[in-house]
Amino acid sequence: MTEADVAASSLDHFWAVIPAGGAGTRLWPLSRAAAPKFLHDLTGSGRTLIQATVDRLVPLVAERVLVVTGASHRDAVVAQLPEVDEAGVVGEPSPRDSMAAIGLAAAMLELRDPDAVMGSFAADHVITDPQTFRAVVTRAAAAAREGWLVTIGIEPTHPATGFGYIAVGDPLPGLDETFAVREFVEKPAADVAARYVEDGYRWNAGMFVARPGVILDLLAGEDPDFARALRGIAAAPETLEEAWSTLPRIAVDHAVAEPAAAAGRVAVVPGSFGWDDIGDFASLETLLRSAGGLTVLGDPELVRTLDASGLVVPSAGRVVAVVGLEDVVVVDTGDALLVTTRERAQDVKAVVAALKEGAHHGLT
Amino acid sequence: MTEADVAASSLDHFWAVIPAGGAGTRLWPLSRAAAPKFLHDLTGSGRTLIQATVDRLVPLVAERVLVVTGASHRDAVVAQLPEVDEAGVVGEPSPRDSMAAIGLAAAMLELRDPDAVMGSFAADHVITDPQTFRAVVTRAAAAAREGWLVTIGIEPTHPATGFGYIAVGDPLPGLDETFAVREFVEKPAADVAARYVEDGYRWNAGMFVARPGVILDLLAGEDPDFARALRGIAAAPETLEEAWSTLPRIAVDHAVAEPAAAAGRVAVVPGSFGWDDIGDFASLETLLRSAGGLTVLGDPELVRTLDASGLVVPSAGRVVAVVGLEDVVVVDTGDALLVTTRERAQDVKAVVAALKEGAHHGLT
């Protein structure tokens, strides 16, 4: 079967849910609270991260897309995604973490399409091989239809300490390349990460595929009020504003995935399709790096270097000259400039925190 | 006698000549061909370099100031120096090196004030102790009145390889702390510089004090046509445009000072008053450096750092964040940004040369 045939045959009720939240503080000054990571073209592809996310899912879901984002970003998301029905872009009145966002989408889909299977994929991740990604998701959707909460287990490329891991168990009979999940484990220390990789653990990229009712019933088993509130909002959308603020702030991993794994209800489909969550400028540089010493995100004509390597982002349209610095990171925007190194890319967060408290909080 | 008394008694006919030329390429992007170094406040004093140059000479010369600058910079100079008579700002039709600029000033003064003694001081040097500077210049003016070509010999603070040196000879009888010059020597290699410093050589800062006729007669001894042409322009200012392009391009040091020293006609007054020619951002950083690790030229509120040292110039008014870089140089202007290190500050020149040849030559 071709990819199109697979989509047509088994994905008629498959929905993409795209939680679009998080400021991406470690990508300041490109990413801001007012214009977070997912609204930017961080790969120089000509598409923003949320546009690329939708692009890679459209062959599976056609118009069946639901985006859940901050109310203040709703207009920008609608503008960036003309192919998504405006009613399919839900604005959260306030940030309430991923369980509320994904749970609300589940409750809406449960009402709208009784045969729905949903896959939740963050708006700000990068995937370099979308075709393999779609094949893996299609496999996950088949398992989800059987009632499993399915996660995608990314094949580690190195012993990362910035991601949680998935312990893979036995193959599930009757399902293609699908395994039981023994447990989810938190971000490990370096030595533990190395052991995980050796033992065949997978990265947890926070992708979940399931029937909406499965997600909500699993949640109901842990926190019945929470599940009831979400279903209530879906049934009476006019109550969203008032009911939202009462919802618990909790990640879907803790609220549902971890207890479900302990109960043997979670499956994992392994995948290897060039995934990155672009956590900071060092990982962005790794992602974009070409043969040469210096990577430019933007117009290379604006960048002049001598004995320099690293990442330069000339997004203010000004000329940027770098002389005699290795593994440097220079991010030039209209109102703020960052100069750091690959090694210290994580520490950008601290500068943003300091700016938030000072006279320049508007820049964060 | 007080400083004011000295000025009143012996400096009635003392004139300041200020050659204002040179792009200051190694201070790009602050300094540009269109807005060279001397037009900028590089010390954060609130005065540009040329303003500070005039400020420190006014107690000696009052309104007796002659500036020779590029025709394209004349308006900017006039605007920056409201206290200088507009007729005292001469625009060179094209760059013709320092002999033409200083020689033209000498020819103009020879006509205007037969008792004149002139001192020539570059527009883009920094002096941290102007009072001592004036005492030294006053001594030089006294020797100049006696017919000497007098230079100021700066006490070296380190064995610099970027300056020429002056070999100091015997004291001149009847003149206060004034010595014969044995010879001028070119910029030395490091080991030679160390020997010079040990042997009591002085830095040649290009400051010359003399009667205008002495300078022109010395020039006439080497190149009679050149001296005649300068005197001709002074007598018929309307010929400037046409005559200027025929003048030789030569530095005053080679045209006059070196041959005069060989002939025993040059005196030196030693001085120690915190002099710097701000050759690049490393020397600017040294000049401005305070106790802390990071020097800011501009509004410190705009700069946020974490584990950083060096120089930041936030002259575009944007926030500049620097994380994890030692001895870095970050110069942020409205249309161009430079990121380099103290160590590589000299190499900025190469980047500017490359820009000159490309699409962004307008930025140089």
Automatic annotation (TrEMBL), chains A, B:
<dbReference type="InterPro" id="IPR005835">
    <property type="entry name" value="NTP_transferase_dom"/>
</dbReference>
<keyword id="KW-0808">Transferase</keyword>
<dbReference type="InterPro" id="IPR049577">
    <property type="entry name" value="GMPP_N"/>
</dbReference>
<dbReference type="Pfam" id="PF00483">
    <property type="entry name" value="NTP_transferase"/>
</dbReference>
<dbReference type="InterPro" id="IPR029044">
    <property type="entry name" value="Nucleotide-diphossugar_trans"/>
</dbReference>
<feature type="domain" description="MannoseP isomerase/GMP-like beta-helix">
    <location>
        <begin position="305"/>
        <end position="355"/>
    </location>
</feature>
<dbReference type="InterPro" id="IPR051161">
    <property type="entry name" value="Mannose-6P_isomerase_type2"/>
</dbReference>
<dbReference type="GO" id="GO:0009298">
    <property type="term" value="P:GDP-mannose biosynthetic process"/>
</dbReference>
<dbReference type="GO" id="GO:0004475">
    <property type="term" value="F:mannose-1-phosphate guanylyltransferase (GTP) activity"/>
</dbReference>
<feature type="domain" description="Nucleotidyl transferase">
    <location>
        <begin position="16"/>
        <end position="286"/>
    </location>
</feature>
<keyword id="KW-0548">Nucleotidyltransferase</keyword>
<dbReference type="InterPro" id="IPR054566">
    <property type="entry name" value="ManC/GMP-like_b-helix"/>
</dbReference>
<dbReference type="Pfam" id="PF22640">
    <property type="entry name" value="ManC_GMP_beta-helix"/>
</dbReference>
<protein>
    <submittedName>
        <fullName>Mannose-1-phosphate guanylyltransferase</fullName>
    </submittedName>
</protein>
